[in-house]
Amino acid sequence: MKKGNNLIKKFTKEKYKYGFTTDVHTDIIEKGLSEDVIRLISFKKEEPEWLLELRLKAYRHWLTLEMPTWAHLTIPEIDYQAISYYADPRQKKKGPKSIEEVDPELLKTFNKLGIPLEEQLALSGMAVDAVMDSVSVKTTFKETLLDKGIIFCSFSEAVREHPDLVRKYLGTVVGYRDNFFAALNSAVFSDGSFVYIPKGVRCPMELSTYFRINAANTGQFERTLIVADDDSYVSYLEGCTAPMRDENQLHAAIVEIMVHDRAEVKYSTVQNWYPGDAEGKGGVFNFVTKRGNCKGVNSKLSWTQVETGSAITWKYPSCILTGDNSSAEFYSVAVTNNYQQADTGTKMIHLGNNTKSTIISKGISAGHSQNSYRGLVRVAEKTIGARNYSQCDSLLLGDKCGAHTFPYMDVHNETAVVEHEATTSKISEDQLFYCNQRGIKTEDAIGLIVNGYAKEVINKLPMEFAVEAQKLLAVSLEGSVG
Amino acid sequence: MNPEQQYIDLFVRYEAMICQHSAGVLNAQRAKAFASFEQSGFPDKKQEQYKYTDIAKLFEPDYGLNLNRLDIPVNPHEVFKCDVPNMSTALYFVVNDTFYKEQLPKSFLPEGVLLGSLKEMAESHPDLVKNYYGQLADSSKDAVTAVNTMFAQDGFFIYVPDWVVVEKPLQLINILRSTVDFMVNRRVLIVLGKGAQLRLLVCDHTMDDVNFLATQVCEVYAGEGSVLDLYEMEETNMSSTRISNMYVRQEADSNVLINGVTLTNGSTRNRTEVVLAGKGAEISLNGMAIADKDQHVDNSTFIDHAASDCTSTELFKYVLDDESTGAFAGKVLVRPGAQKTSSQQTNRNLCATRKARMFTQPQLEIYADDVKCSHGATVGQLDETSLFYMRSRGIPEREARLLLMFAFVNEVIDNIRIDALRERLHLLVEKRFRGELNRCKGCENCK
Questions:
Q1: Which of A95, A212, B63, B111 has the most CB atoms around it within 10 Å of its CB?
Q2: Where along chain B do its domains lie?
Q3: CB–CB of B364 and A394 under 8 A?
């Protein structure tokens, strides 16, 4: 416990640890959004004609849309013309071939973040595709993965080298017509990760990407596409940070996952974008569309997310359970402090027979923050034997914050069993008293209880992330209790 | 013509006639309601609150209105004999929207209690009615309330003064009677003073097989320390549409129980908004719906914890058969400073066929930290293990199913605080499940 407390102190003094900016030569295009800008992005990335067409279609569709307002969030007006849609931290010459060629400043950034980019960190067993601003910088462990036939590369590289695969799957789970931000992303996405696991292959290591918004006034619009072919398995980690800036930065990403017969995908996120300062100034707007399609029979998809950052979070990692007997899980811890706002949850669309889904969501709000869970469980008319269990708990620390739940259940078939439970409360006086009585200070006791409360979700994270997530929880809540 | 225009034209053309047959207090609110209706129109399904019921479509058909207050020849005492036995209620009738003045029960009403036609009360006690009429029901926030306020000419009014206890339960029967497709705009005002107590049972019935559209706006004021039991039972027919908005305001330490039972109906939409305005107020909001064929039942509730130390419990259960649709949306708002709030919401639903649909949407919005709030919702079917257990003991499957369904809704009926009514409902529900109550024909088969 003592150790944990020191940790909290250490972190609070540091404030937002990842709030540094890296001085790398950045190739930013002019602010604003128009068809010309999209053509320019596409040209810079040397994209094929069909991709440009897709971008333009998405852009034209986006123009017809209005920013949705249904979320329980207060969002200041966003001027989409005041954002630069492309920032390339790559050197002018072609990409680096070995570690020596990578800009040392960039390497330092990643070292600060603790990313095992260099070979000697191989022991930690992760292959990292680091996306800094918009262009993927370097992908580690590529050769090892190639041996198994696994494709793990930046999105632009995938477009160049595996155009058929990309073309086959891009936009099949999240189409450009899906929503406002999906259309925007489809029009201007700059880079991201692409993963393809061939039939029968079990990915030997955890794949990991690190997103980071570096340049000022740029939005990050990355695109992740994961395809797990029959009988394959992959666990994918995503971590996010952003440097400290006064103005808000926009982040609108799309993650698409396609899971084929008997395949399994685990997707874990630790989101720690800059949340703004204690007065609610600055911070990242995180408007993300994440969706997986359990297309194959007996397929499985699991989302785990720990959301501690961002001024505003608006995301609903969802699953479409198309294949019979497929199952999906959603585990989430969302922590909001100061003036943060979060409206997050999931959608489970049951289309296949005997499909199962589990939702465990834990919200913790402190300070002046607002934390909402919003979820949809839908059972289609012809779906037989669907099963869902949802549980969403909220914990309130302080009397100025808010915790809200908005679950929707649309059941169109009698064989479905859908359960939902939600509780909201502050930390139980009994538990606190019990700890106090045994000589544990109130502040420590709250730390203990919160950690125990989130344990159910954190346990689902891979080891490396679980440690980080626990630290983040402690940091995010420091100063909000007692 | 879009559905709004129909009502706008009607109002513009007949405003004078509507006012002529109503009272000043009611007339005073019409212009404002009309202005907001003209501006907003009917809500579409994109509006969160009306997501599951297409209001505009329900208002679309051409219904007749009795704006000129022609007498409808009916003696409800003769055609209607559905008294709850052993309950010895004092029976009152509202035919369409007119309070039936003849043969009023001779039962003793405590001194000071005012009961009767809203229109007449508004004429004889304008200051009293003015204090309450339209104060909770805000036309600018709800199109149905606006339409009702525009057209309502009469309804039911009851006022129980401070510290008066009405011992005997009162029963109010709403009868829909017409030979042509008909629209009724009913208004109900219930006012309880400090420490007053009242038990009221309201039943909805239809006498004819024509299409009915009944809108009802009910405003309930529960004074400090008052106790109110309000039971609403709907036994109309497949061609009836009921759209009801109920607004309740509770002062400190008041205790209100509302139980809405939908047994037979066409389309029903019940919206209940409760403001717990005083410290220590308590609300128990219950509902039950048994639906088959293509019945539609939509209950939408909103409980606003505006003061500290308040308690709210909600329990809604649905049994859906055939191609019926059920919807439940329940929102609980705990305002900043409403500490020591306890709120519990439960919604359980049984879908008996593949075509039955259930939408449920519990919501919590909490801005105070010392609270205990929970909600639970389930949608499912009868437990196979229990069915098997009963069948293995020789109970036929049909019977076993009925037993289980009956047990399922029993929880709601058990919340009723009048013994005789509870027993009566047990019987009615059983009959309903056995299909003997598909249509209530003047209730001769209930006896």
A1: A212
A2: 3-382
A3: yes
